[in-house]
Amino acid sequence: MDILQEIKRLEEEIRKTPYNKATEHHIGRLKAKLARLKGEAEKQRKKTGGEQFAIKKEGDATVVLVGYPSVGKSTILNALTGAKSEVGDYDFTTLKPVPGMLEYKGARIQIVDVPGLMEGASKGRGRGREILAAIRNADLIVIVVDVFTLHNVDVLKRELYEGGIRLDERPPEVIIKKRATGGLNVKSTVPLSLDEETIKGILREYKIHNGDVLIREDITIDRLIDAILGNRVYIPSITVVNKIDLYPDVEIPDKAIPISAEKGTNLDVLVEEIYRKLDFIRVFLKPPGGKVEEEPMILRRGARVEDVCRKLHRDMVENFKYAKVWGKSVKFDGQRVGIDHQLEDGDVLTIYAK
Ligand SMILES: Nc1nc2c(ncn2[C@@H]2O[C@H](COP(=O)(O)OP(=O)(O)OP(=O)(O)O)[C@@H](O)[C@H]2O)c(=O)[nH]1
Ligand SMILES: [Mg+2]
């Protein structure tokens, strides 16, 4: 049996096996095996070529528009950024990623229009794998459907999932330390629904027979496998329903934003939601002995002093001595901090270099 057949067989068996305490361990092993085989199949495909079209990240964050052909992705890009991505009333007008820049509240947000994605993309249909690889770089994904194809939201989410992209999910709280001997030692800080034997069975499926595993959430089989593989990306998302001008009474799914890119309807709401979801913070720089700069530096929440250094100059990280911070991230004003210090919105920062 070749890998693809084996994958089919496993998927079939997982579908047919009812999930309960008695089958949990078995399903855990099957899912682990399935994920491993999919990884191998992916590697084989990569060897057989397929040129990548990566996006060069620019600005303070990158947003990618993802949707079926002809839903209006290029029209949206053009309306938001003034880019000139080709628009056509036929499928696959856009053949490679096209970037544009949106400036909003001081942030420079790169928006990227990628070719249409569809069912089977994760298996390589319609250059799907290259498109998925490009999408993985995004800081935010905007899923675009039009008023006639609302059901494609689920298809797109499934393809992204199969492509290793986890939407609106936090990374699993699992730390795995492999060791040479001593068996598997599983510890958790919260009560677990999964049996320890299921967890160990999954780890062994990945040839992890010795080591310490610390679990800090009530983990599922799928999230445990994601943690072991470690190659998933976790990206927030927004869903947009376009062409609302053609069918104003359509029932909009929960939390989705109805727009008309052509008529300009509701684009302000979309832009505000993009800005909000990107979770920016503003940090004000103060040169040593100088005055606080008026223009803030825009960073993502969770950013550290190191990220500021990188934005300032490529040698800054190397030449960094220490920094002083005034604001919410420190206990007292003018506190001296290191390069790993995490900043907060509104902080003032002075960097001292060698
Ligand atoms: N009525 C209406 N038509 C729209 C709207 N947005 C886009 N269109 C039309 O829909 C068609 C497809 O638009 P594109 O922007 O090329 O779609 P796309 O998603 O980039 O398509 P591909 O590049 O093929 O993946 C064009 O004829 C657009 O003029 C809208 O809000 N309302
Ligand atoms: Mg297009």
Can you tag this structure with a few keywords?
354 residues, binds magnesium ion, alpha/beta, single chain, binds guanosine-5'-triphosphate, Rossmann fold, Ubiquitin-like (UB roll)
Explain this structure to me?
By secondary structure, this protein is of the alpha/beta class. The chain folds into three domains: about 5-50 and about 170-230, no CATH class; about 60-170 and about 235-275, P-loop containing nucleotide triphosphate hydrolases (Rossmann fold, 3-Layer(aba) Sandwich); about 280-354, Ubiquitin-like (UB roll) (Roll), CATH 3.10.20.30. Helix content is about 30%, strand content about 25%. It has ten helices and 16 strands. It has helices spanning about 5-15, 20-45, 75-80, 130-135, 150-160, 195-205, 220-230, 265-280, 305-310, 315-320, and strands at about 60-65, 100-105, 105-115, 140-145, 165, 175-180, 185-190, 210-215, 235, 235-240, 255-260, 280-285, 295-300, 320-325, 335, 350-354. The strands form four sheets. The protein has a six-stranded mixed sheet with strand order 2-3-1-4-10-11, with helices on both faces. The longest helix is centred in the N-terminal third of the chain and has 27 residues, at about 20-45. The structure holds guanosine-5'-triphosphate and magnesium ion. Guanosine-5'-triphosphate (GTP) binds near residues 67, 70 and 245. This is Small GTP-binding protein domain. InterPro entries: Beta-grasp_dom_sf, DRG, G_OBG, GTP-bd, GTP-binding_2, GTP1-OBG_CS, P-loop_NTPase, Small_GTP-bd. One of its GO terms (molecular function) is GTP binding. Keywords: Coiled coil, GTP-binding, Nucleotide-binding.
